Amino acid sequence: MSEKTKGQKLMKELSYKKQNYFEAASKEEKQAIFDYAEGYKAFLDAAKTEREACAASVALAKEKGFSEYKFGDPLKAGDKKYFVNRGKSVVVFRVGSLPLEEDGIRIIASHIDAPRVDIKQNPLYEDSGMAFLKTHYYGGIKKYQWTAIPLALHGAVVLKDGTKVEIRVGEDAGDPVFYINDLLPHLGQEQMSGHANKLIEGEQLNVLVGGLPYPDEEVSDKIKLTVLSILHEKYGMCEEDFLSAELSAVPAYPARDVGFDRALIGAYGHDDRVCAYPALTAVLDNETPHTVLAMLVDKEEIGSEGNTGIQSKVYEDLMEEISIALGANFRKVRAASKCLSSDVTAAYDPNFANVYEKMNAAILSCGTAMCKFTGSRGKSGSNDANAEFIGEVRKMFAEEGVVWQTAELGKVDIGGGGTVAKFIANLNIDTVDLGVPVISMHAPWEVISKADLYSNYKAFLAFMK
Predict the structure, then answer these.
(1) The domain 16-114+268-464: what is its CATH number?
(2) pTM, to two decimals
Protein backbone atom coordinates (compact mmCIF):
# COMPACT_ATOMS: atom_id res chain seq x y z
CA MET A 1 0.00 0.00 0.00
CA SER A 2 1.43 3.38 -0.97
CA GLU A 3 1.87 6.11 1.62
CA LYS A 4 -0.76 8.16 -0.22
CA THR A 5 -3.31 5.33 -0.11
CA LYS A 6 -2.46 4.62 3.53
CA GLY A 7 -2.96 8.27 4.39
CA GLN A 8 -6.33 8.37 2.65
CA LYS A 9 -7.42 5.27 4.54
CA LEU A 10 -6.25 6.71 7.85
CA MET A 11 -8.02 9.99 7.16
CA LYS A 12 -11.26 8.12 6.48
CA GLU A 13 -10.89 6.01 9.62
CA LEU A 14 -9.73 8.69 12.04
CA SER A 15 -11.28 11.99 10.97
CA TYR A 16 -14.81 13.26 11.68
CA LYS A 17 -17.06 14.70 8.99
CA LYS A 18 -20.74 15.49 9.10
CA GLN A 19 -22.86 13.38 6.78
CA ASN A 20 -25.87 14.52 4.74
CA TYR A 21 -28.69 12.18 5.72
CA PHE A 22 -30.32 12.31 2.30
CA GLU A 23 -27.06 11.02 0.79
CA ALA A 24 -26.70 8.28 3.41
CA ALA A 25 -30.32 7.08 3.26
CA SER A 26 -31.48 4.16 1.14
CA LYS A 27 -34.33 4.63 -1.33
CA GLU A 28 -36.73 3.10 1.20
CA GLU A 29 -35.50 5.33 4.01
CA LYS A 30 -35.80 8.44 1.83
CA GLN A 31 -39.42 7.52 1.24
CA ALA A 32 -39.90 7.07 5.00
CA ILE A 33 -38.43 10.55 5.55
CA PHE A 34 -40.93 12.13 3.18
CA ASP A 35 -43.88 10.07 4.45
CA TYR A 36 -43.16 10.99 8.08
CA ALA A 37 -43.10 14.68 7.17
CA GLU A 38 -46.72 14.56 6.00
CA GLY A 39 -47.97 13.58 9.45
CA TYR A 40 -45.83 16.30 10.99
CA LYS A 41 -47.24 18.99 8.69
CA ALA A 42 -50.79 17.97 9.60
CA PHE A 43 -49.86 18.20 13.29
CA LEU A 44 -48.39 21.69 12.82
CA ASP A 45 -51.54 22.99 11.13
CA ALA A 46 -53.69 21.64 13.97
CA ALA A 47 -51.39 22.90 16.73
CA LYS A 48 -50.60 26.61 16.47
CA THR A 49 -50.87 27.25 20.21
CA GLU A 50 -49.84 25.16 23.20
CA ARG A 51 -53.53 24.45 23.93
CA GLU A 52 -54.05 23.12 20.41
CA ALA A 53 -50.79 21.15 20.49
CA CYS A 54 -51.88 19.54 23.75
CA ALA A 55 -55.29 18.63 22.31
CA ALA A 56 -53.77 17.30 19.07
CA SER A 57 -51.30 15.18 21.06
CA VAL A 58 -54.06 13.70 23.20
CA ALA A 59 -56.07 12.86 20.08
CA LEU A 60 -53.08 10.98 18.59
CA ALA A 61 -52.50 9.20 21.91
CA LYS A 62 -56.11 8.03 22.08
CA GLU A 63 -55.87 6.68 18.53
CA LYS A 64 -52.94 4.51 19.70
CA GLY A 65 -54.87 3.13 22.68
CA PHE A 66 -53.47 5.42 25.38
CA SER A 67 -55.81 6.33 28.24
CA GLU A 68 -55.79 9.21 30.70
CA TYR A 69 -53.79 8.92 33.92
CA LYS A 70 -54.68 10.68 37.15
CA PHE A 71 -52.59 10.81 40.32
CA GLY A 72 -53.19 7.73 42.43
CA ASP A 73 -54.21 5.45 39.56
CA PRO A 74 -52.66 1.96 39.67
CA LEU A 75 -50.03 1.14 37.04
CA LYS A 76 -48.51 -2.05 35.67
CA ALA A 77 -46.06 -3.06 32.96
CA GLY A 78 -47.53 -2.50 29.52
CA ASP A 79 -49.78 0.43 30.50
CA LYS A 80 -50.03 3.27 27.97
CA LYS A 81 -51.05 6.57 29.55
CA TYR A 82 -51.24 10.32 29.04
CA PHE A 83 -51.45 13.08 31.64
CA VAL A 84 -52.79 16.56 30.83
CA ASN A 85 -51.73 19.60 32.83
CA ARG A 86 -54.35 22.36 32.63
CA GLY A 87 -54.92 21.82 28.93
CA LYS A 88 -51.58 23.43 28.05
CA SER A 89 -49.03 20.64 28.49
CA VAL A 90 -49.18 16.87 28.19
CA VAL A 91 -47.06 13.89 29.22
CA VAL A 92 -47.38 10.53 27.42
CA PHE A 93 -45.73 7.45 28.87
CA ARG A 94 -45.41 3.68 28.59
CA VAL A 95 -44.71 1.49 31.62
CA GLY A 96 -41.91 -0.95 30.85
CA SER A 97 -40.99 -4.34 32.25
CA LEU A 98 -37.48 -3.52 33.53
CA PRO A 99 -36.98 -2.73 37.26
CA LEU A 100 -37.60 0.99 37.65
CA GLU A 101 -35.04 1.58 40.41
CA GLU A 102 -32.27 0.08 38.29
CA ASP A 103 -33.32 1.22 34.81
CA GLY A 104 -34.99 4.54 35.63
CA ILE A 105 -37.22 6.41 33.17
CA ARG A 106 -36.16 7.32 29.65
CA ILE A 107 -37.38 10.91 29.30
CA ILE A 108 -37.73 13.08 26.20
CA ALA A 109 -38.61 16.69 27.03
CA SER A 110 -39.82 19.21 24.45
CA HIS A 111 -41.95 22.33 24.51
CA ILE A 112 -45.11 23.14 22.56
CA ASP A 113 -45.35 26.91 23.02
CA ALA A 114 -43.94 29.22 20.34
CA PRO A 115 -43.26 32.96 19.94
CA ARG A 116 -46.41 34.86 19.07
CA VAL A 117 -48.40 38.06 19.67
CA ASP A 118 -50.83 37.84 22.60
CA ILE A 119 -53.94 39.98 22.95
CA LYS A 120 -54.04 42.24 26.03
CA GLN A 121 -56.81 41.96 28.62
CA ASN A 122 -58.41 45.31 27.71
CA PRO A 123 -57.56 45.40 24.01
CA LEU A 124 -60.35 46.67 21.76
CA TYR A 125 -60.39 50.26 20.49
CA GLU A 126 -61.33 52.30 17.44
CA ASP A 127 -59.26 54.98 15.75
CA SER A 128 -59.46 56.69 12.32
CA GLY A 129 -61.84 54.27 10.64
CA MET A 130 -60.25 51.08 12.00
CA ALA A 131 -60.76 48.80 15.00
CA PHE A 132 -57.69 47.24 16.66
CA LEU A 133 -56.72 44.84 19.43
CA LYS A 134 -53.79 45.90 21.58
CA THR A 135 -51.12 43.22 22.14
CA HIS A 136 -48.13 42.11 24.19
CA TYR A 137 -45.69 39.87 22.32
CA TYR A 138 -44.72 36.48 23.78
CA GLY A 139 -41.14 35.20 23.56
CA GLY A 140 -38.20 36.49 21.58
CA ILE A 141 -39.29 37.95 18.24
CA LYS A 142 -38.11 40.47 15.66
CA LYS A 143 -41.15 42.71 15.94
CA TYR A 144 -40.94 44.05 12.38
CA GLN A 145 -41.38 40.51 10.99
CA TRP A 146 -44.94 40.37 12.34
CA THR A 147 -46.25 43.35 10.36
CA ALA A 148 -47.95 43.14 6.96
CA ILE A 149 -48.61 39.38 7.08
CA PRO A 150 -51.93 37.50 7.42
CA LEU A 151 -52.66 36.53 11.00
CA ALA A 152 -55.14 34.14 12.58
CA LEU A 153 -56.69 34.52 16.02
CA HIS A 154 -56.54 31.47 18.30
CA GLY A 155 -57.36 30.90 21.94
CA ALA A 156 -59.93 30.49 24.67
CA VAL A 157 -62.31 32.87 26.41
CA VAL A 158 -64.00 32.18 29.75
CA LEU A 159 -67.28 34.09 29.74
CA LYS A 160 -68.66 35.78 32.83
CA ASP A 161 -71.00 32.83 33.44
CA GLY A 162 -68.00 30.46 33.51
CA THR A 163 -68.50 28.98 30.03
CA LYS A 164 -65.26 28.42 28.11
CA VAL A 165 -65.35 29.21 24.39
CA GLU A 166 -62.66 28.17 21.91
CA ILE A 167 -61.78 30.66 19.15
CA ARG A 168 -59.91 29.85 15.93
CA VAL A 169 -60.41 32.33 13.08
CA GLY A 170 -58.24 32.84 10.01
CA GLU A 171 -57.23 29.28 9.10
CA ASP A 172 -60.05 28.10 6.84
CA ALA A 173 -60.36 29.28 3.23
CA GLY A 174 -63.56 31.23 3.92
CA ASP A 175 -62.30 32.89 7.12
CA PRO A 176 -61.22 36.52 7.41
CA VAL A 177 -57.63 37.10 8.56
CA PHE A 178 -56.13 39.83 10.72
CA TYR A 179 -53.23 42.22 10.23
CA ILE A 180 -50.61 44.44 11.89
CA ASN A 181 -50.01 47.67 9.94
CA ASP A 182 -46.59 48.80 8.73
CA LEU A 183 -45.44 52.15 7.38
CA LEU A 184 -45.18 52.66 3.63
CA PRO A 185 -41.59 53.19 2.35
CA HIS A 186 -42.53 56.61 0.93
CA LEU A 187 -42.98 57.87 4.52
CA GLY A 188 -40.53 55.52 6.21
CA GLN A 189 -37.20 57.35 5.86
CA GLU A 190 -36.94 58.07 9.59
CA GLN A 191 -38.18 54.60 10.53
CA MET A 192 -35.61 52.90 8.29
CA SER A 193 -32.73 54.93 9.69
CA GLY A 194 -33.27 53.53 13.19
CA HIS A 195 -32.08 50.36 14.91
CA ALA A 196 -33.89 47.22 13.70
CA ASN A 197 -35.27 46.64 17.20
CA LYS A 198 -36.98 50.02 16.96
CA LEU A 199 -38.46 49.73 13.48
CA ILE A 200 -41.68 48.68 15.17
CA GLU A 201 -42.25 49.34 18.87
CA GLY A 202 -44.03 46.81 21.03
CA GLU A 203 -47.01 49.13 21.49
CA GLN A 204 -47.36 49.44 17.70
CA LEU A 205 -48.15 45.74 17.29
CA ASN A 206 -51.88 46.43 17.20
CA VAL A 207 -53.97 43.87 15.33
CA LEU A 208 -56.41 45.25 12.76
CA VAL A 209 -59.79 43.55 13.27
CA GLY A 210 -62.47 45.73 11.69
CA GLY A 211 -63.55 48.68 9.57
CA LEU A 212 -67.36 48.56 9.22
CA PRO A 213 -69.42 51.13 11.20
CA TYR A 214 -72.46 49.87 13.11
CA PRO A 215 -75.64 51.38 11.58
CA ASP A 216 -76.68 53.57 14.51
CA GLU A 217 -76.06 57.32 14.42
CA GLU A 218 -76.30 57.60 18.22
CA VAL A 219 -73.28 55.34 18.83
CA SER A 220 -69.85 56.97 19.13
CA ASP A 221 -67.49 54.00 18.42
CA LYS A 222 -69.43 52.43 15.58
CA ILE A 223 -66.64 50.18 14.24
CA LYS A 224 -65.78 48.91 17.70
CA LEU A 225 -69.46 48.10 18.24
CA THR A 226 -69.58 46.13 14.98
CA VAL A 227 -66.70 43.99 16.21
CA LEU A 228 -68.32 43.53 19.62
CA SER A 229 -71.65 42.57 18.04
CA ILE A 230 -69.95 39.90 15.89
CA LEU A 231 -68.09 38.51 18.91
CA HIS A 232 -71.34 38.41 20.88
CA GLU A 233 -73.27 36.72 18.09
CA LYS A 234 -70.61 34.07 17.38
CA TYR A 235 -69.18 33.43 20.85
CA GLY A 236 -71.50 35.04 23.40
CA MET A 237 -68.78 37.53 24.35
CA CYS A 238 -69.06 41.03 25.70
CA GLU A 239 -66.09 43.38 26.03
CA GLU A 240 -65.58 42.50 29.69
CA ASP A 241 -64.91 38.86 28.72
CA PHE A 242 -61.52 39.84 27.31
CA LEU A 243 -60.46 40.06 30.97
CA SER A 244 -60.55 36.25 31.24
CA ALA A 245 -59.35 35.45 27.74
CA GLU A 246 -56.16 33.93 26.35
CA LEU A 247 -56.08 34.96 22.69
CA SER A 248 -53.08 34.96 20.38
CA ALA A 249 -52.37 36.26 16.90
CA VAL A 250 -50.35 33.68 14.95
CA PRO A 251 -49.35 33.47 11.28
CA ALA A 252 -52.24 32.24 9.13
CA TYR A 253 -49.96 30.24 6.80
CA PRO A 254 -50.24 26.44 6.63
CA ALA A 255 -47.13 24.26 6.65
CA ARG A 256 -45.73 23.92 3.13
CA ASP A 257 -42.94 22.11 1.34
CA VAL A 258 -40.05 24.41 0.39
CA GLY A 259 -37.87 24.04 -2.70
CA PHE A 260 -38.28 22.34 -6.07
CA ASP A 261 -37.22 19.04 -4.50
CA ARG A 262 -39.56 19.37 -1.48
CA ALA A 263 -36.71 18.51 0.89
CA LEU A 264 -37.60 21.29 3.35
CA ILE A 265 -40.67 22.39 5.31
CA GLY A 266 -41.67 26.00 5.95
CA ALA A 267 -44.09 26.64 8.79
CA TYR A 268 -44.90 28.61 11.90
CA GLY A 269 -43.92 26.94 15.18
CA HIS A 270 -41.12 24.53 14.21
CA ASP A 271 -39.56 25.76 17.47
CA ASP A 272 -40.27 23.43 19.19
CA ARG A 273 -43.02 21.30 17.70
CA VAL A 274 -40.45 19.84 15.30
CA CYS A 275 -39.03 18.07 18.37
CA ALA A 276 -42.32 17.58 20.23
CA TYR A 277 -43.95 15.63 17.39
CA PRO A 278 -41.09 13.07 17.04
CA ALA A 279 -40.98 12.73 20.85
CA LEU A 280 -44.71 12.06 20.93
CA THR A 281 -44.78 9.63 18.01
CA ALA A 282 -41.70 7.74 19.24
CA VAL A 283 -43.53 6.92 22.47
CA LEU A 284 -46.87 6.25 20.78
CA ASP A 285 -45.58 4.01 18.00
CA ASN A 286 -43.06 1.72 19.68
CA GLU A 287 -43.04 -0.82 22.49
CA THR A 288 -39.93 -1.02 24.64
CA PRO A 289 -38.87 -2.80 27.84
CA HIS A 290 -37.93 0.58 29.37
CA THR A 291 -40.39 2.92 31.03
CA VAL A 292 -40.45 5.85 28.61
CA LEU A 293 -41.99 9.27 28.96
CA ALA A 294 -42.37 12.28 26.65
CA MET A 295 -42.99 15.66 28.27
CA LEU A 296 -44.52 18.30 26.00
CA VAL A 297 -44.46 21.43 28.12
CA ASP A 298 -45.46 25.08 28.00
CA LYS A 299 -43.78 28.45 28.66
CA GLU A 300 -40.23 27.57 27.50
CA GLU A 301 -40.13 30.73 25.39
CA ILE A 302 -40.56 32.91 28.48
CA GLY A 303 -38.25 31.09 30.89
CA SER A 304 -40.17 27.87 31.66
CA GLU A 305 -42.05 29.58 34.48
CA GLY A 306 -45.56 28.99 35.82
CA ASN A 307 -47.53 25.86 36.60
CA THR A 308 -47.44 24.59 33.01
CA GLY A 309 -43.71 25.26 32.42
CA ILE A 310 -41.03 22.66 33.13
CA GLN A 311 -40.15 24.31 36.46
CA SER A 312 -43.59 23.37 37.77
CA LYS A 313 -43.43 20.63 40.41
CA VAL A 314 -46.21 18.73 38.64
CA TYR A 315 -43.77 16.88 36.35
CA GLU A 316 -41.58 15.77 39.24
CA ASP A 317 -44.74 14.80 41.12
CA LEU A 318 -45.90 12.75 38.14
CA MET A 319 -42.64 10.79 38.00
CA GLU A 320 -42.88 10.22 41.73
CA GLU A 321 -46.46 8.97 41.38
CA ILE A 322 -45.35 6.54 38.65
CA SER A 323 -42.55 5.30 40.94
CA ILE A 324 -44.89 4.83 43.91
CA ALA A 325 -47.47 3.01 41.77
CA LEU A 326 -44.77 0.58 40.67
CA GLY A 327 -43.35 0.12 44.19
CA ALA A 328 -40.07 1.94 43.48
CA ASN A 329 -38.05 4.45 45.50
CA PHE A 330 -38.31 7.74 43.63
CA ARG A 331 -34.84 8.97 44.56
CA LYS A 332 -33.33 5.81 43.11
CA VAL A 333 -35.52 6.13 40.02
CA ARG A 334 -34.39 9.72 39.43
CA ALA A 335 -30.74 8.81 39.77
CA ALA A 336 -31.12 6.00 37.24
CA SER A 337 -33.16 8.06 34.75
CA LYS A 338 -31.85 9.65 31.56
CA CYS A 339 -33.19 12.51 29.47
CA LEU A 340 -32.90 13.91 25.97
CA SER A 341 -33.96 17.54 26.25
CA SER A 342 -35.16 18.06 22.72
CA ASP A 343 -35.18 21.67 21.59
CA VAL A 344 -34.18 23.17 18.26
CA THR A 345 -30.83 24.73 17.45
CA ALA A 346 -29.75 27.24 14.82
CA ALA A 347 -28.90 25.81 11.40
CA TYR A 348 -25.82 27.31 9.76
CA ASP A 349 -26.93 29.94 7.24
CA PRO A 350 -24.28 30.98 4.66
CA ASN A 351 -26.17 34.25 4.15
CA PHE A 352 -25.24 35.23 7.72
CA ALA A 353 -21.99 33.31 8.10
CA ASN A 354 -20.32 35.91 10.33
CA VAL A 355 -22.35 34.90 13.42
CA TYR A 356 -21.57 31.17 13.20
CA GLU A 357 -18.47 29.10 13.89
CA LYS A 358 -19.00 26.67 11.06
CA MET A 359 -17.02 23.70 12.42
CA ASN A 360 -19.35 23.54 15.41
CA ALA A 361 -22.59 24.72 13.79
CA ALA A 362 -25.46 22.46 12.78
CA ILE A 363 -25.63 21.92 9.02
CA LEU A 364 -29.03 21.45 7.42
CA SER A 365 -29.91 17.82 6.54
CA CYS A 366 -26.98 16.37 8.49
CA GLY A 367 -29.27 14.99 11.15
CA THR A 368 -30.53 15.91 14.58
CA ALA A 369 -28.02 18.04 16.49
CA MET A 370 -26.63 17.35 19.96
CA CYS A 371 -25.69 20.41 22.00
CA LYS A 372 -23.43 19.45 24.91
CA PHE A 373 -24.10 22.85 26.42
CA THR A 374 -26.39 25.78 25.74
CA GLY A 375 -26.40 29.00 27.76
CA SER A 376 -24.46 32.07 26.65
CA ARG A 377 -21.29 34.06 27.38
CA GLY A 378 -19.19 31.37 29.01
CA LYS A 379 -21.98 28.73 29.10
CA SER A 380 -23.95 30.80 31.61
CA GLY A 381 -27.31 29.24 32.47
CA SER A 382 -26.39 25.96 30.81
CA ASN A 383 -26.68 22.29 31.52
CA ASP A 384 -23.22 21.16 30.37
CA ALA A 385 -23.69 17.41 29.88
CA ASN A 386 -20.95 15.07 31.04
CA ALA A 387 -18.81 13.10 28.60
CA GLU A 388 -19.88 9.73 30.02
CA PHE A 389 -23.54 10.32 29.22
CA ILE A 390 -22.75 11.67 25.75
CA GLY A 391 -20.66 8.57 25.13
CA GLU A 392 -23.59 6.40 26.16
CA VAL A 393 -25.95 8.23 23.80
CA ARG A 394 -23.38 8.05 20.96
CA LYS A 395 -23.26 4.29 21.38
CA MET A 396 -27.06 4.04 21.21
CA PHE A 397 -27.12 6.06 18.00
CA ALA A 398 -24.27 4.08 16.40
CA GLU A 399 -25.99 0.77 17.12
CA GLU A 400 -29.22 1.96 15.49
CA GLY A 401 -27.65 3.79 12.53
CA VAL A 402 -28.80 7.27 13.54
CA VAL A 403 -27.31 10.07 11.43
CA TRP A 404 -26.64 12.95 13.81
CA GLN A 405 -24.26 15.85 14.42
CA THR A 406 -22.94 18.06 17.15
CA ALA A 407 -23.75 21.77 17.32
CA GLU A 408 -23.69 24.97 19.28
CA LEU A 409 -25.82 28.07 18.80
CA GLY A 410 -23.53 30.68 17.23
CA LYS A 411 -20.06 32.00 17.90
CA VAL A 412 -18.68 32.33 21.41
CA ASP A 413 -19.84 35.67 22.89
CA ILE A 414 -22.45 36.09 20.15
CA GLY A 415 -24.87 33.19 20.38
CA GLY A 416 -26.44 31.09 23.06
CA GLY A 417 -29.86 30.25 24.38
CA GLY A 418 -31.70 28.34 27.05
CA THR A 419 -33.71 25.13 27.04
CA VAL A 420 -35.49 22.96 29.58
CA ALA A 421 -32.40 20.74 30.01
CA LYS A 422 -30.97 22.43 33.10
CA PHE A 423 -34.23 22.08 35.03
CA ILE A 424 -34.35 18.34 34.44
CA ALA A 425 -30.65 17.95 35.18
CA ASN A 426 -31.29 19.69 38.53
CA LEU A 427 -33.37 16.63 39.50
CA ASN A 428 -30.19 14.51 39.37
CA ILE A 429 -31.05 13.15 35.92
CA ASP A 430 -28.40 12.83 33.20
CA THR A 431 -29.55 15.19 30.45
CA VAL A 432 -28.29 16.44 27.10
CA ASP A 433 -29.85 18.68 24.44
CA LEU A 434 -30.78 17.11 21.12
CA GLY A 435 -32.86 18.83 18.48
CA VAL A 436 -33.56 19.82 14.90
CA PRO A 437 -31.59 22.65 13.20
CA VAL A 438 -33.83 25.56 12.12
CA ILE A 439 -33.39 28.36 9.60
CA SER A 440 -34.91 31.74 10.63
CA MET A 441 -35.71 30.58 14.16
CA HIS A 442 -38.46 32.61 15.91
CA ALA A 443 -39.62 34.15 12.64
CA PRO A 444 -43.31 33.87 11.70
CA TRP A 445 -42.23 31.22 9.18
CA GLU A 446 -39.27 28.97 9.93
CA VAL A 447 -37.61 26.31 7.75
CA ILE A 448 -36.34 22.81 8.61
CA SER A 449 -35.13 19.77 6.68
CA LYS A 450 -37.33 16.69 6.47
CA ALA A 451 -34.17 14.61 6.94
CA ASP A 452 -33.42 16.27 10.29
CA LEU A 453 -37.02 15.79 11.43
CA TYR A 454 -36.87 12.05 10.72
CA SER A 455 -33.37 11.78 12.21
CA ASN A 456 -34.77 13.22 15.43
CA TYR A 457 -37.49 10.56 15.44
CA LYS A 458 -34.94 7.78 14.83
CA ALA A 459 -32.74 9.15 17.62
CA PHE A 460 -35.64 8.92 20.06
CA LEU A 461 -36.36 5.36 18.99
CA ALA A 462 -32.70 4.44 19.61
CA PHE A 463 -32.80 6.14 23.03
CA MET A 464 -35.95 4.23 23.98
CA LYS A 465 -34.63 0.90 22.72
Answers:
(1) 3.40.630.10
(2) 0.95
